[in-house]
Structure formats: C-alpha cells, structure tokens
Amino acid sequence: MKFLRDALDKTKSHFEKGKKFEKFYYIFESIDTLMFTPKETTHAKGVQIRDAVDMKRMMMTVIIAMIPCLLFGIWNVGQQHFIALGQQAEFLDIILIGAMKVVPIIAVSYIVGLGIEFTFSVFRQHPINEGFLVTGMLIPLVLPATIPLWQVALATAFAVIIGKEAFGGTGMNILNVALTARAFLYFAYPSQISGEVWTFIGDNAQAVAGFSGATPLALGADAVANGTNMMTSMSSFGEGWYDNIYSFSNMFFGFMPGSIGETSTLMCLIGAFILIATGVGSWKIIFSVFAGAYGMGLILNGFGANPFMDMPAHYHLVIGGLAFGAVFMASDPVTAAQTETGKWIYGFGIGMLTVVIRVLNPAYPEGIMLAILFFNVFAPLIDFYVVKANKKRRLQRATV
User: Fold this and answer.
1) Residue whose C-alpha is closest to residue 357's, from 344, 343, 346, 373
2) What are the average pLDDT values for consecutive 10-residue runs of the chain, which has 400 residues?
3) What is the C-alpha to C-alpha distance for residues 73 and 16, in angstroms, rounded to an integer?
4) Would you kindly state where each structural domain of the chain is located, as residue ranges?
5) How many CB atoms lie within 10 A of CB 14?
6) Strand partners of residue 198
C-alpha cells in the first residue's frame, strides 16, 4: 500500500489552501482518511483521551455487522426467484440472480447519497462526515429487491437532503436517515414497497410473467379485514408451497419473501453480537425493543377483539423488520436516547408501539418503521426527563 500512500501525499498539495483544487479539499481528505489512519496528533497540553477507533472505523464496524444480512439477502432473492419458477438451482446460480438485483440498488444508493454529500461539502466547505457509509447500505437492505432504481435514487436524495443536510449534516439529524428514505417511498409509492413483496423473475421468463407473495404482515392485515384467524391464514398459505413458508423456523431463518436484509432474524442477531461485542451498539436498546414487542404481544393476546391479536407473541419477534430495526435502526447513536435509563424507555416504547400499530392499524402492517421514527422525535424529551429526575433525586439526598 506504500505506493498508494505516496500517490496521495504527492496529490495532496494540489488541494491545499490557495491551490487550484482548494474547494475540493474535503473530498480528497475523506478519501485519504477512509483508506489510511490520519497522521494528526494532539498538541494541546492537559489530559487527552486517546482511542484507536475513529468515526470511520466505527462506521465500518456497523457495515461489517450488516454483511450477514446482505449476503443472506442476496441468496434469498435468488432463492425466491427459483421457487417462483418451481425450479431447483445451483448455489452459484442463486447468488448470481440475487446479486443482479441487489448490487445495482446498493450502487445507486451510494452514488446518489455520496454525490449529494460531496456537493454539500464543496459548497459549504465543511468536512465530509462518515455517516453515509452506513446509511448507504441500510437504505437498500430495508427495500424490496424489485424496487425501481429511480425510486431508490429519489428516496436517497430526499433522505440525505431533507432528513440530514437540512438539519446541519451528520450528527444533527433528528430522524434515522435510512428510515426517512423508506418512509418517503412508503407514502409516495406504496404499491412498490408495502403489502406485497414481488419476487424477481426476469423479463424473458417462460414459466410465468411474475410472482407475488404476501408477507406474513400482509396476511395478518388480510385476516383482520376478513375476520379470519391470523395463524390459520398463514398456515393455509404455506401448505404445499415451500414446506409451509410461514412456519416459525422459516421466519426465524428468513426463508421467505421480504425486504432484502430484513427477513432473517438469525442474521440480524449475528449483527447484534458484533455491534455489542465491539461496543458500537447498545445492548439495552436492542434487548428492550424485543422485550417491549414480546410483552405487548402477550398483553394483546388476552383481548381477542382482533384476529391479529391471536398471533402468539413470539411471532412478532421474527416477522417483518423488527429484528433488523432493533439492531441497526433503533440503536442509531445519533437519533436514539443517550441516557442509560432513557435507552430502556426508548427501546421498550419502540417494541410496544410496533405491535400496537401492527395489531390495531392493519393499514400499516410494518409497525417498526413508524415506531422508530416516532421515538426518534421523542428521544430528546425522554433524556430531558431522565436527567431532570436524576437531579431531583440528588437534591433530595443532599438535603437529608
């Protein structure tokens, strides 16, 4: 890598102040520091905190944690393709089909998002933040494989400009940027992202022109609308097709249609282990989201006023994007609660609201997206009252 280091050092002078490419300095700096650890050291006197992990490395840890979801998502997209055709296929053929659909979505997300980041950096003359390294991967993983690429570009642009840059850039945003992109598509183009998940077949397929598979959440919404039992609908749908596709084990491992990175709870848990082990993710938030969803599921099981309430509480943990949202979205350090007690309240609230939305408002079967965005807004308020309560307790102890 020495030749690359030397090449960057020689090129750097052209981007320094007063040189020809001065206004592009921060673009050069972002590329340099992404590849190599910065050489700068602290010169001020006094106590200093030194850590081998900088922001870019932290973001790369999150990306590494998402790799299991990404790789499984690529495989599952290809697998669903051949299931729809009623064919068996070799592993490499499955991966090829999956990559053909997933990789372009990732490419569009990064190209559009980083392009906007670079543009704002040039005009505002500020360093390029590292947040989009993660956001650029999160956006594709929360979308179905058949989403039109122009919609990916539009949603990414909306999320970066309105969801982040309008608030001052990375670290200043109120809402999770990737979920802002999904919410934009959900309300602007609902037919491409909600209810049904379409499996890729291909323009030249001979067997069928397309295949549409309802997600378990969509089946639940149908059960509510038709007054049938949620679990009966899922069971009958799965009989004779892919060995009961909506069994608990299939939903846990992710062998079903769905958004690219959200179907496998197991892959999400592997990602959670990486984040927690490295200290990047908050185990309190992740655990409390699952606990809140399970607890609310148990509570609603006792009412039975709605067919969706009959679904066993543990099913809420493996359907939809709850696991992915809990691990990679709810624990976003920018938009989540910061106090230790606040993290518990924040996580429990997200889990409980997710199930409430699923059960009581079947028009929005995927409740995790709206629940996280809702609590993103209230996270500062939660921290405010937690800190206020701590101050009150300390004052009371001081007066005793």
Assistant:
1) 373
2) 63 64 60 58 52 67 94 92 84 94 95 87 68 88 91 94 80 87 88 52 44 52 51 47 64 87 94 93 95 93 74 87 93 91 96 90 76 94 94 83
3) 43
4) 14-36+55-215+257-261, 264-392
5) 13
6) 212
Amino acid 153: pLDDT:
95
**Closest of 253, 262, 259, 277 to residue 326, by C-alpha:** 262
Alpha-carbon span 94 to 88, nearest angstrom:
9
Q: What is the pTM of this model?
A: 0.79
Closest C-alpha among 223, 294, 218, 310 to residue 259: 218
Quote the strand ranges of 161-246, DSSP E: 196-199, 211-214
Beta-carbon neighbour count of residue 228 at 10 Å? 15
Q: Distance between CA atoms of 150 and 172, rounded to whole angstroms?
A: 27
DSSP structure string for 156-181: HHHHHHHHTGGGTSTTT-SS-HHHHH
CB atoms within 10 A of CB 277: 12
Place of tokens 């979505």: 105
Q: What is the pLDDT of residue 243?
A: 45
**pLDDT value of position 336:** 92
Q: Are 322 and 308 in contact (CB under 8 A)?
A: no
Contact assessment for residue 308 and residue 230, using Cβ atoms and an 8 Å cutoff: yes
Q: If you ran DSSP here, which 8-state letter would residue 140 be given? A: H
